[in-house]
């Protein structure tokens, strides 16, 4: 039976980057990571304490987003942690490179694993937002020895569940293709004109919404669409219980999204069967928790890392 598209939920895929607090980076020592095996699917900026003097934390932003999503949080964590801020090729102004054609998610996961190995990272904590959360789960599934713990920020093992509790990859894939073709077929001016509305469904902060728009338009639309379609074609639920390391799922609640019970059931049901998972709800927030509720987000991150 065809699944009826819900525009509010679909727009959650169009996660973009927030750069208002970029200047925080200027006060923290940063350098591009130089791994023996050069990464081509993403770039990494390393910040914070020197190697060996603080625990490693990898931060992966969402669809169409850049590392500056975590700018404010990085400034707070940098005195105590070594931070590896990832940005996928094709997102938020990053050159598309090999992500311009062919599969994206699985090759990114392989290079994330190689980055951890090449840089001798010992069970780093990984924080993944949106698509970054899915990539984090994929990495933990495929390479169970890589990460020490996971913070999954508003992401699901199968994002198709936002369409319907009965969703499957087979049912969602045709809808994802239609949605992708629609986005790709828009003239540039029409695509740009839709972004303020899309941003308003992702973040409450007016300044954050401006940055969402700017970085959506800076992303390679083809890469964003391809990654979105891959996301909807990925269902980790049958094997997600294999992940044994501690996981915290951070999810937002806003009255416009539905009832509290429905939202909570979506997240808890999606991770059912996982042996070591806990849930933290952030109220009065939309998809970009780090922008809408920065203090609550920081408290959750600190609790996760400690």
UniProtKB/TrEMBL annotation:
<keyword id="KW-0378">Hydrolase</keyword>
<dbReference type="GO" id="GO:0016787">
    <property type="term" value="F:hydrolase activity"/>
</dbReference>
<protein>
    <submittedName>
        <fullName>Pimeloyl-ACP methyl ester carboxylesterase</fullName>
    </submittedName>
</protein>
<dbReference type="InterPro" id="IPR029058">
    <property type="entry name" value="AB_hydrolase_fold"/>
</dbReference>
<feature type="domain" description="AB hydrolase-1">
    <location>
        <begin position="57"/>
        <end position="299"/>
    </location>
</feature>
<dbReference type="Pfam" id="PF12697">
    <property type="entry name" value="Abhydrolase_6"/>
</dbReference>
<dbReference type="InterPro" id="IPR050266">
    <property type="entry name" value="AB_hydrolase_sf"/>
</dbReference>
<dbReference type="InterPro" id="IPR000073">
    <property type="entry name" value="AB_hydrolase_1"/>
</dbReference>
<dbReference type="GO" id="GO:0016020">
    <property type="term" value="C:membrane"/>
</dbReference>
